[in-house]
Amino acid sequence: MKRKKNIGHTNRKKGHNAERFYSKWFKELGFKFCQTSRYGSRLYDDCGIDLINIPFLVQVKAGKQKNLNIISELKNIETKVAENFPEDSKEHRFPKMLIHRKDVGRGRRRTDYDDIVTMTAADLNKLIKMLS
Fold it and tell me: How far apart are CA 69 and CA 81, in angstroms?
C-alpha cells in the first residue's frame, strides 16, 4: 500500500526553501548579512518577517496559496512590529512586502511571472525615497 505524503510537511518544506532562495537572492544583490528569521531571530519570525538584516520587512509565501489575503499579511507585519519594537526603531521605517513564489508544477519552466512582489503604494513610496 502506497503511503500518502503529508501535505503539511510538503508545504512547510516549500516555504523554507523559498525563504532560503530569497535570502540567497538578497545576498547576491549586495545585502551580504541577509538571513532567514528562523535562523537569525525568533522575534522577527514571530512578527511575520521571514528575512532579516535587509532594509525591508519581507514575508515569503510559496506554492499555491488558496486563501492568501495579502492585505491581512501586510497589516499583520505592521501590527506585530508595533507590538514588539520601540517606536523609534528602524523597523517602523522599512517598507513591507510580500513575495509569493508560485508553484509552477511539473514540466513547466519558471518564468519572471512566477515570483510576485506585493506592497502598498505608501511602502513603494518609502522604497523610492530610499533609492533617491
Answer: 19
**pTM recorded for the entire structure:** 0.86
User: Could you tell me the three cell numbers for 57?
Assistant: 520587512
Instruction: Kindly list the distances between the CA atom of residue 74 and the CA atoms of 4, 9, 95, in Å, as whole numbers in the listed order.
Output: 34, 25, 10
CA distance 50 to 59: 5
- What burial letters (b/e) apply to 88-125, b meaning 16+ CB within 10 Å? eeebeebbbbbbbbbeeeeeeeeeeeebeebbbeebee
Q: Is the pLDDT of residue 115 over 70?
A: yes
d(CA 33, CA 52): 8
CA distance 91 to 83: 12
Could you tell me which of 20, 114, 122, 128 has the C-alpha nearest to residue 78? 122
